[in-house]
Amino acid sequence: MGNELKVENLKVNLKSFSYSVRQLPTFSWQIKNENGCFQKEFRIIIAKSKDLLLKNKLLFDSKWVNSNNNTAVCIKEISDLLDTGTLYYWSVCIKDQNGNESEFSKPSCFITEFSQEKFDQLKGIWSLNKTGKEQLPDLGTTVFFRSPQFKVITENVDKAILTAVIKGNEPTLSQSCDLFFNGQSIGVGSARSHPNYHETKKTQIFYNSYDVTELIKENNLIAVKATGVDKKRAFYAFLTVYLENGLQQQVIVTSSDWKALDATAAYGDFDSKIRSLYFEMPEENVDMRYYPQGWMKNSYDDHNWNQALVKKYSLIGDDEFVSAYPSENTYRYKLSTKLQTIKVIAENDILIDLGKEVIGSLAVNINSTCDQETIIYSGEQLNDDGTVRHHLACGPDYVEKWTLVQGKNIFSTLQMKNFRYVELKGFVGEIHIGDITGWAMRQPFDDNEGSFYSDDKLLNAEYEMSKYTIEATNQDIYVDSQARERRPYEGDLLVNANTSYSISSNYSLARHSIDWLLDNPTWPEDYKLFNVEMAWYDYLYTGDISLLKTRYGILKKKFLRGPNDSDNFDEKVGLVSGNGLVDWPIRERDGFIESKYNTPFNSVYVGDYQIMAKIANELHCEQDSKFYLKRAAIIKNTLLTKLFNKQEGIFYDSMDEDGNVNKHCSHHASAYALSYQVFKDQAMADKLCTFVANNGEFVGSIYFIYFILKGLINGHHAELALKLLTNTNCGKDKKTFAAILNNLHATIAPEAWSNYYKPNLTMSHPWGASPGLVIIQGILGIEPIKPGFKEYSVDFHVGDLHEISAKVPTIQGELVFDYKLTDKYKVLKIKAPNNTIGKINLAFKSPIKEISGKACNKDNYLLIYPGASTIKFDK
What we know:
alpha+beta; 9-stranded mixed sheet; 49 strands
């Protein structure tokens, strides 16, 4: 059975269950065959229900299509067949290169997006206060809702989908809503809106849909806890039941029949706020005398709650429109208590270490021996005396008060915070492991999908920190940190997405973040260009060209960084004017001298002009491609002739308008140049790598090291990157990951090496997660060469490591990498995904002694075919 041909892991629009399909869905699947194979043909069938699909009562049959493509497959004939807001099932079978035919895959489903008319003129609900008037926006921002109990005839149900929209929060609090179905948490919504949608003045409002099929009973109830801070606040939801015969019914919708409870008293919400410089959110001073314990359960008695208030205005404004959220939903997850510890600091003062940083809130189940008040401190770090640093380094002060009643106190908080430690001050009684747990907010994450192990424990710990960083920070869009700004930035995206590509096959969040940032750019000038390379990486990893097609125009505009969006290229000089972030904080710039023409900024242009030329080629814009290649060549040549210190083999920082070169050579100038391959030959790259690697000592911030490490990878010296990562010096304020792990006790990548380098740092800032991508893309050298991972590189530089085992997720399936240094050989074992070809560059490898399995030596490359291969290199 090992050679059986199967099709699995079906996805539509990059999601296992997509409810955001518009006119043309893109289909992807993985091919399973132990001996290895290539797809030659495929056949897709579609029906309006699983039952109809299995009975072969089809809406569409592609018949056999002669194609090896199994990623982002788009079939234009489907467009006219799909209705809005409709459930469809699909299945696919393939033929391999030998004519073997698979069975049809297990059916998978998708839902087309609801029409705009579905939301026009609809009115959401909110709550009344005790006077019978609408809850005031400046007080009582949180509300509980309960639907009437309703019946569903379960035997004919194919899928039951709850769709919800909440409005009225400031953008950074957009996910302050907990949804429950029959007492079970089903998700957090709605996702942050998309202003300036695709260069218009419209704002895209997102709805989220949740599959509640497995929770359906004869009698059902929807319960909601939500926050809204302005007059537009409103909650709207409806349940759609799709039947086995392909029909659908709307079972329940928000109305005045719903019950609402003003949560002002329950959360002590009397306009007390937790603030940073960038946002504010309500304090949650939970008062269990008024908190409705068990409020989300069907059995709860809500007879004394008010009827929900149906708002007078339309849910959607004139400058807004509604779309399905294009990435995965955000859900609630209880943090494992395996690492949790509890310590009594002093009498009635208890410290809980959750073991890992949480982005989210708390789930509480405390048995109190008496009625009492306790102060709750939470934070990312501890003070020197072992208490919680509740006034976070990055601004917010997490101080709240809980009023507990004698007996059981079961509740959850709602607002998103960043913390690892919780301190109960003035608590009388005992707290046990699990009484208070992290109630995290994040997208689904398959912990088994990506893995890495080596004989270096520090490197392993860095990978795990990077992996947990991606897991914990996957909310509705990539941001710098939820602790302080909660704002997407292109520079953060650069590290966050690349690390995510290395450890997860969830590509939809990166794509959504790219699309959002194209319309809402941030202030650093180089950041705008990073979006160009991220759009290209999206194509390489997914094989889906739709983002490049739809956003090509604005990608071109990103290069126009002169006044009023003019071209900042100076033809007389051969360089672009302007500057980027370089590094942050400014004091981390290694003395970099800024002027009109700057080496880092121009280096970014070289690399991104080259990438833009590839994008233009893929879109058949040949003249554009030639233009971008020419620009890249001119700037590169000018950098090499005017800003390169030939004697030292490194780059100068900048050049003045009068042509005077500032002959200071920061590490930043050379690292950026190396990262974007501004060098003539390998000998030149060797010198640059030696300088940038700095004898195994990092220079600059934890953000900037992305360019150091990426430069060493692109300069074919990833072993020097490995040396930097495995520096074990963990002295106070040392710039090492050993210090971050041992001194800061980081579980998510921090914003800076320590509080010394950035006193207002956050401990949950993905731009510090470079080790994850460097380990996979650099040390193992695994990167896509052709779109959809059809062809990929394995350019490994393992340095002094004796043993490595890794699983690398790709859209084609997992790539398994095993390396071992034996007494005689360097042994590399690779199990490659089907429908792919790997290429090992032999230029920097030892002579091959033996090849077995699906590999062969050709044209200075070792080609790796699907299946298992073993290569023995001379030691």
